[in-house]
Here is the input.
Amino acid sequence: MSPEGRAALAALIHAEMPNLPVEAHDAATGHPLCVVGFGPDEVFAATEAMITTEVTMGARTRAFEAAWAARCGRAHGVMVNSGSSANLLLLAALVETGQLSPGDEVLVPAVGWSTSLFPVAQVGLVPVIVDVDPRTLCMDPASAAAARTPRTRAVLAVHLLGQAAEMGAYDDLLVLEDACGAHGATIGGRPVGGVGLGGTFSFFFSHHITTIEGGIVVTDDAQLADAMRSLRAHGWVRERSDRAALEAASPEIDPRFLFVSPGYNLRPTELAAAFGLVQDRRLDAWVARRRANHADWSARLAGVRGLTVFPEAPGTTHAGFAFPMLVDGDRAGCMAALEARGIATRPISGSNLARQPAFARVPALTPVPLPVADAVHTRGFFVGNSHAFGADHGVRLAAALAAWSAS
Ligand SMILES: Cc1ncc(COP(=O)(O)O)c(C=O)c1O
Here is the structure.
């Protein structure tokens, strides 16, 4: 683009999007699940990608991958088109590289997102559902220990709604992290996604930062990263670091269309990566505000009769994706009371995934009791948290819950 064209385009986009991204939301207007977290800078970057016709996976994607991997203290990042795809890709690559074999058991918490669980079975592994810790709603190491068998090879920890899961108890297993809803959270001073063998993130519209749809896997394992680069893009050899050797091993095949693994197409676009590069610069400040909200709201609500909240666990920093609660008694009535005051509610992710209808078609094991997940299933819900929310949202939430509790 010409310098004049860039300046004119930037001025136009900025004029059309004056108050975006939303930085401060007025609590008097309600309490939505999320706010619009992108603005003219992201739209300019994506538009520039289109105007230059650089739209398919390329330099912007590589730059975002490098930035996100560095953020997590990892050597490699492999960007994809969703967090669900990131989970699928990581697990498929572990099978592709032989680090896991079909039939191996993978410990998965009962409370997570549907596509934390389903990809385990989709690549031929056996999900073993374990309970969650009543203090964090993340996987309970004691329940995981009780569910282990000689076939257990890996654990998929889900950092639920911004709370980092405990991961120290699984030393002899492959530790995988679903950090799709915990961008910027830390455990023991380390960023989530940067602790296990591989970590995944989602950049869906409502997450801490967004590429509209999008996701990434980070890892230090070069072989795994290469497998993911093939599996992400048709199974071809192109983005692999060991490309030269693989091409030499198949001299009869044109290297431009050399397929070395039975892959998918999970690629992101350059528009998504352009968004991501701008959004990455916003994350730290935004997560700090989410964390402060989580602490403030936890303190405000701790005294509400019949309500359980989940303060940041010791040794972690909370990324405040959403604010979960458990109620004694009439959950539907409580959620209706909040909705009536403009406070949006949702169940806690998939709640007990073993009780979802789709679970009947997943070849999974449920060897241990799931009382905490069941409590989440019947008594849990969350409200939104956001960098644009503040103490006022906590005040309104506390007032609404106190009124419900007294009714
Ligand atoms: C824990 C967890 N895993 C996976 C996903 C899936 O991410 P996506 O919506 O980008 O596919 C989500 C989505 O919110 C999630 O919260």
